[in-house]
């Protein structure tokens, strides 16, 4: 009986460890995804900023 309870405790601990590892990996993946999203957004904004320079001087799109 006691060995069965020990096996159940080990299973519960393993499940908690797996949940902890999966949540940590999801959190790390989310941070990496946010970092890539922010860097791509920053580069696209920089590209748009460079792209808008000729439009302000009256040459280019709508000028």
TrEMBL record:
Keywords: Membrane, Transmembrane, Transmembrane helix. The chain crosses the membrane at residues 15-38. The keyword Transmembrane helix applies. The keyword Transmembrane applies. It comes from the Eukaryota. This is Candidate secreted effector.
């Amino acid at each position: 009986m006691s060995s069965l309870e020990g096996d159940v405790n080990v299973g519960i601990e393993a499940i908690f460890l797996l949940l902890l590892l999966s949540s940590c990996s999801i959190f790390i993946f989310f941070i990496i995804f946010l970092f890539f999203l922010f860097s791509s957004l920053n580069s696209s904004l920089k590209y748009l900023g460079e792209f808008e320079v000729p439009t302000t001087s009256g040459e280019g799109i709508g000028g």
